[in-house]
Amino acid sequence: MRTTRPVFAAFDQGQIPEIAVFNQATTPLGLDLDKLVAALQKFVTDYVVPVWGTPARLVKTTGFKKNAWAVVFLDTADQANALAYHELTPGGFPLSKVFVKTIADDGASLTVATSHELVEMLVDPAINMLTTGPDPKAAYAYEAADPVEADSLAFNVNGFKMTDFIYPSYFEIFRKPNSTKFDYRGKVSRPFQILPGGYQLVFKNGKWSQITASVAKARALRREDRRQHRSEIRKMRPDRWRRSRPRAKRR
Q: pLDDT (tens digit, 9 = 90+) per residue, 164-179?
């Protein structure tokens, strides 16, 4: 009986990954993708790299590229499933999916969401990093944008809104309040603080849960379609991750 080999990888450690950015959505993006890719490159090089040391080369493509990570625009999680876009690229590399119609229906910023997925993929490409925190019996997901994900916290890069993101110091529980910088915008004043509109994924007693700063955010998360979201992939065993097998879109 043939067995499926588990997919394990230390993604491009010590190297600069190339990230293919392409669009499979039928919902209009409402922007120039070439200009957005240039802005995302500046976001990575000028803002993320000095903090996290995670360089990358972004390139606009028409589909997956050999040996490259990927950011793909899709309408919804249903379209991703229909086109067989799964947890990894066909080559077994990190894949971020941005759901254009879902974001538009929520009235949220497409560029903030895209930069959010990008910075989190760069900091934790295997979606498996955890850290200790305020609750000694819990483990906290190492996500670089969730605690500060509100569109209102975004900043402009080349005319596009980019997500705020946290610094490594955010996860250093020994830090005193206001003793250092905890996020790019300087809105966070202490480790593990969750700003309005943000949340933190926590693993405790064998279960995942989400901590929010407000009841409104908790309600919003319950309403949101979380399928194929990083938080859902994090709950999967890595040996159950699937490589994408993209099928052509129906015309």
A: 999 999 999 999 999 9
